[in-house]
Amino acid sequence: MQGETYFSVRMRASQNGSHENGGKHISGGERLASFNGLKDAVNALLDKGLSHSRGKPDFMQVQFERVDEPIRPLQPLQIETNEVCTAEDGRVLAAALLSKAGVPAQSIDKVFQEIDQYSDVRGAVLFDIDSGKRIDGREEKGVRVSRLDWPEADFAQWAASHGAPLNSRIKEALAIATKVCRHPAVIAELCWSDDPDYITGYVAGQKLGYQRITKMKEYGDESGCRVFFVDGLTDLKTCIDDLEKKPVLIQAGGKRWGDH
User: Fold this and answer.
1) Radius of gyration of the chain, Cα coordinates, nearest whole angstrom
2) 106-113 long-range contacts, Cβ below 8 Å, gap at least 24?
């Protein structure tokens, strides 16, 4: 990695026009790739956007740009799977895990009361645990965590050593959760997919780790959510810039944010 030029590759796909023109969000993705790996990264994101269960897109944008900042290696969060029988049980468990991570009860209650309002947000909602309000100001766009990846060989080695499946969903979700929850301003993350065929979600935190919950909604439900619970006393602009622009590679032997 040292001395090699990397590129941030991003994809977004929608149906019935672009996102800006009211199109339905279908898929998005992020990769970090060397110049020689650009074609593979672009093809992988094209395939993801064209084969999503939310529908066939009629608008897709794929772009890449050179990354000029040093890339930080980060260790993946510890992972644990929690089996539940119903979506209601899953959300009750999610609330308990958020509380364990340090999110106040009133903030947890407020997010679950407003969760339907967040289903059309393309990125993440930043929720201040002190004021109990959404503070990112991004409306339907939200905050899009970017400039991150997990090299396939390293992920395969990690998955084998942890008894985890070689599942691209787990790789992508754990990579995002790791970058997000290693940030000092983030207390915890709550997420489940807008994919109607995927009902597993998670709660993640720096000390809590990545807690998969096997059922957070019903099959066929296209609503999803991604909420970052943050300490509103921190510099919000710096926090958003870090999440969207600071380049990170997840590596099983990597460092934690701030390690030297």
Assistant:
1) 17
2) 106/132, 107/132, 107/229, 111/190, 111/227, 111/229
Give, in order, the Cα–Cα distances in Å from 56 to each of 16, 18, 27, 31, 43: 10, 13, 10, 21, 16
Confidence label for 258 from pLDDT (cuts 50, 70 and 90): very low
Where is the domain boundary, 68, 92, 114? 68
Q: Which residues contact 131 (CB under 8 A, 6 or more apart)?
A: 232
Burial grade of 67 (CB within 10 A; 0-12, 13-18, 19 or more): middle
Both structure tokens of 163: 């008894």
Could you list the residue range(s) of the whole structural domain that residue 27 is in?
Answer: 6-68
pTM of the complete model: 0.92
Same-domain status, 35 and 145: no
> Tens of pLDDT along 27-67?
999 999 999 999 999 999 999 999 988 999 999 999 999 99
State CA 192 to chain mean position distance: 9
In this structure, the answer to whether residues 152 and 28 fall within a common structural domain is no
Element holding 81 (H helix, E strand):
strand 79-82
Total domain count for the chain? 2
